[in-house]
Design a protein that fits this description.
By secondary structure, this protein is of the alpha/beta class. The chain has 2 domains: 141 residues, 3-Layer(aba) Sandwich (Rossmann fold), CATH 3.40.50.1980; 134 residues, Nitrogenase molybdenum iron protein domain (Rossmann fold). 41% of the residues lie in helices and 17% in strands. It has 12 helices and 12 strands. A 6-stranded mixed sheet has the order 4-3-2-1-5-6, sandwiched between helices. Strands 7, 8, 9, 10, 11 and 12 form a 6-stranded mixed sheet that branches. Helix 5 packs antiparallel against helix 6 and helix 6 packs parallel to helix 11. The mean pLDDT is 91.
């Protein structure tokens, strides 16, 4: 089977199911596992290549393109045609996150390509894990997918049991800083499973823009802030997070952490379970162990 994946999370699932050799095209953001980087890249970003790595500038560029009804991502139609895919894994959950499946279908019409477009759109933690089985069904790997999904569910349940009965500190997860956005969809489920109480965002609901005044009114001296900007490496998160951590609106917080959002939180693939385990390590290190500096850095205090 010839598979094109336009989602980093779907690419991870395909590799986890032992079918990486079937991938004939990936998005420019597909970087895990490392073998994903050897695949032909069939999508890119329409944002200026020389745009500064600054949250406010990136947000402004995205909003301008959306206002003009211009795409944020590009498809290399020639490479897709040459890839001759049987299946394309895409999404409709977030126009800012990846190429929407509707845009993929339009491109296929132009190319006269008959590939099946499979849209993966989880909004809850359980649905993220269900996505493993859905991709498995597409690839004919039902048994392997069922085994992986079962393992992931067991790991989540093990974390729940480990933190059961412990105090559940309030947790504010921020997926952007300028302007601030809470972290919705499956993130509140992850925080709850890891032994915290999610603030502002609702499980299953989209991430929402917030004001710093709202955040100041929400943060208490028991609150733990997890900074996880979408699309950022941990190093970039730490660099921007040092400024965010000093904002007066977060002054009351017990702690501010930078976490590897791109690896464990933003992408709805198998590694979200690592993210659940990481939340438990940040909130309850006595029972879950200390988080690795490769995954989380305490910014304050």
């Amino acid at each position: 089977m010839r598979v094109v994946s336009l989602l980093p999370s779907a690419t991870e699932i395909v590799f986890a199911l032992g079918r990486g050799d079937d991938l004939v095209g990936v998005s420019f953001e597909c970087d895990h596992p490392p073998a994903a980087r050897t695949k032909p890249v069939v999508s890119g970003t329409a944002l200026p290549a020389d745009a500064p790595l600054d949250a406010g500038a990136i947000d402004a560029a995205v909003r301008e393109r959306m206002r003009a009804q211009e795409p944020i991502y590009t498809l290399d139609q020639e490479r897709i045609r040459d890839a001759r895919p049987d299946v394309i894994l895409a999404q409709d959950l977030c126009r800012v996150c990846a190429v929407p499946s509707g845009a993929v279908e339009e491109a296929l019409d132009v190319l006269g390509c008959r590939a099946e477009v499979v849209s993966l759109d989880p909004t809850r933690l359980d649905e993220v894990i269900d996505g493993v089985e859905r991709v498995g069904a597409v690839l004919g790997e039902e048994a392997r997918a069922a085994a992986l999904a079962r393992e992931l569910r067991e790991r989540v349940e093990a974390v729940r049991q480990r933190v059961a009965g412990l105090p559940r500190p309030p947790v504010l997860a921020l997926e952007w800083s300028d302007p601030p956005f809470d972290a919705g969809h499956w993130l509140p489920d992850m925080i709850e499973a890891g032994g915290g109480t999610p603030l502002l965002a609702r499980a299953g609901a989209r991430s929402r823009e917030r004001t710093w005044r709202e955040i100041a009114d929400t943060v208490t001296d028991e609150c733990v802030v997890l900074f996880m900007p979408c699309g950022y490496s941990l190093d970039a998160t730490v660099a921007e997070g040092r400024t965010v951590a000093q904002r007066p609106e977060l002054a009351a917080a017990r702690a501010v952490w930078a976490v590897a959002g791109d690896a464990y939180f933003s992408r709805p693939g198998p590694r979200v379970v690592d993210g659940v385990e990481l939340v438990a390590q940040v909130l309850h290190p006595d029972v879950a162990g200390e988080p690795s500096a490769r995954d989380a850095i305490r910014l304050r205090p």
